[in-house]
Amino acid sequence: MDRHDVIGLSSMATRGVLADLAGRVSADGPADVVFSSAGGVEVGRRVREGEVADLLVLARGAVEALVEQGHLVAATVRPLFLSEVVVAVPEGAPAPEIASIEQLQAALVGAGRIGYSTGPSGAALLRLLDEWGLRAQLEDHLVQAPAGVPVAQLLAQGGADLGFQQRSELTGIPGVRVLGPMPPGAEIVTTFTGAVLTRTGDESVARGVLEALAAPAHGPVVAEHGMTLAGERRV
């Protein structure tokens, strides 16, 4: 059987899990799968500007926008991974309580610099601050990581005292301590979604790879990267 090359694009949040799964899918199927990862905003721009690839994995909202713009095959869209946003501090820094919304709000008000991302987790955090009436009060303390730069880097290098991003981007990073998920009533869960690009060289093979990435057998691997297969939980 002839081998095919399948090129995927993804945001940094799914870089690790997709690299792991791509190796497994390549070994088991007729395609050699390789993903290129960058900031989600950057990946979206590259797709809109005509970059040639076969698969795309981004947050659900970004995928839906690219479908509407004609860059993705609508019939191939499928949720892949669920990723919860967690709270982190620099290693060795005091750990505020975050078990309740009130405690998290107090931690935010007491933080010198609050790191958040350009991606969906950052947008969701800002919406929460608006809902709580804290956005204006904290505006001068908010530090948005540049596109493609994880919040973990801000925390580890002294650029933030409290950080919010997907667990996969903050877990196991030197210089960073994860405190835990957002408290009940303030949960932020990002759905990373896959789709085939309209510019794919072989839609059938690309569809097959997308299905393979979502296989239930990969659940333990996905969990190792701090995520859950979308099929294991209702979205």
Describe the structure.
- The protein has 235 residues and is α/β, with parallel strands linked by helices.
- The protein folds into 2 domains: 121 residues, 3-Layer(aba) Sandwich (D-Maltodextrin-Binding Protein, domain 2); 98 residues, Periplasmic binding protein-like II (D-Maltodextrin-Binding Protein, domain 2).
- 37% of the residues lie in helices and 26% in strands.
- The protein contains 10 helices and 10 strands.
- Strands 1, 2, 3, 4, 5, 6, 7, 8, 9 and 10 form a 10-stranded mixed sheet that branches.
Task: Based on the model shown, name its key terms.
D-Maltodextrin-Binding Protein, domain 2, 10 helices, single chain, 26% strand, elongated, 235 residues, alpha/beta
Short overview:
With 235 residues, the protein is an alpha/beta fold. Helix content is 37%, strand content 26%.
Give the arrangement of secondary structure elements:
Elements: E1 4-11, H1 15-28, E2 31-38, H2 40-48, E3 55-59, H3 60-68, E4 78-90, H4 101-110, E5 114-116, H5 120-132, H6 135-138, E6 142-144, H7 151-156, E7 162-166, H8 167-170, E8 176-181, E9 189-196, H9 203-213, H10 219-224, E10 228-229
Parallel strand pairs: 1-2, 1-3, 5-6, 5-7
Antiparallel strand pairs: 3-9, 4-7, 4-8, 4-9, 4-10
